[in-house]
Amino acid sequence: MLAAAALQVFRPAQAAPAGAAGPIFVLNSLDANVSVIDPVSFTEIRRLPTGKEPHHLYLTPDEKSIVVANALSDSLTFIDPLTGLVQRTVTEIIDPYHLRFSPDMKWFVTAANRLNHVDLYRWRPADAQPLQLAKRIPASRTPSHLWIDSRSTVVYVSMQDSDELMAIDLATQAPRWKIPVGKMPADIFLTADDRTLLVALTGDQFVECYDVSGAKPQLVKRIKTAAGAHAFRAKGDRRHVFVSNRVANTISLIDTHALAVVDSFAAPGGPDCMELLADGRTLLVSSRWARKLTFIDTTRREVVRQVPVGRSPHGVWTLAHAPRQ
Q1: Is 72 in a helix, a strand, or coil?
Q2: Please, what is the Cα angle at 58 between 53 and 60, to 5 degrees?
Q3: How far apart are CA 69 and CA 144, in angstroms?
């Protein structure tokens, strides 16, 4: 049975501004819940219980569900992004740390950060058990983050503790290649043309750039950002991407055409995951060590507000977002 708080319908304190749609969701990894934040009053209106250690979440390509991956509970929590209500809980999903839908919504992929494998599921949304395991692929130590290309053909996986990157062919459900990369790769980001894969090195101060258009990936550049390069969020113009530098407490803006940093600004409290609002300038950042959601005006390059949330805030998403490329 859902907790009473989960049965409340999201109602803004006042009429939402143009373009607003639904609340902001922040995962509190050490509290096993989700903070639901009113985007008008900028206050936490409730917390939804999830399974243990919810680290990452993903908005389905049809934007009908926010999917929360509960790593230690082997489950997924589906939440309505408009109402903030729990839609369903799917169990028997083993160690889902990071997650990704293919753009064509035929595949759902999870990285088992603790158990060292990548799972490929077929997506059957009308079924009682909507995810059918097609293949479990062994991985090196600590598979961390995933990306799927725009054609829904390749899954890219970073492996944090073996300093490797792997590509998996969705048609054959088999690895295409595996290569060594820099120290402690975390998030990855594929440019809009599916050509250049960016790898954030949390154990260093660089983003590595690989040309993945050929049979074998080629390192083309190492971009110096700042200590603890960790997570990406596109600016929405198909050219620029933000990267959070968790150790340096900064965020860098990378031009993916020039493969260079073109801006940077402070982001307190161990910046981790990010979301960009539909206005194209307000960046939401989970301040991992400060138990806050930080709002940064990227035009003024300054923090404009912080909202207290739970312990170890990680993933952050909202339906009122800028484009993801």
Answers
A1: helix
A2: 140
A3: 13
What span, in angstroms and rounded, lies between the C-alpha atoms of 169 and 135? 11
pLDDT tens digit at each of 325 positions of the chain: 223 223 233 333 333 333 347 999 999 999 999 999 999 999 999 999 999 999 999 988 888 999 999 999 999 999 999 999 999 999 999 999 999 999 999 999 999 999 999 999 999 888 888 899 999 999 999 999 999 999 999 999 999 999 999 999 999 999 999 999 999 999 999 999 999 999 999 999 999 999 999 999 999 999 999 999 999 999 999 999 999 999 999 999 999 999 999 999 999 999 999 999 999 999 999 999 999 999 999 999 999 999 999 999 999 999 999 999 9
d(CA 317, CA 307): 15
Identify the CA nearest to 165 among candidates 117, 199, 204, 216.
Answer: 199
**321, 145, 198, 134: CA torsion to nearest 10:** -100
Q: Left (φ > 0), alpha (ψ -120 to 50) or beta: where does 156 sit? A: beta
Tokens in use for 30?
Answer: 């050490």
* Alpha-carbon dihedral sign for residues 247, 253, 256, 262: negative
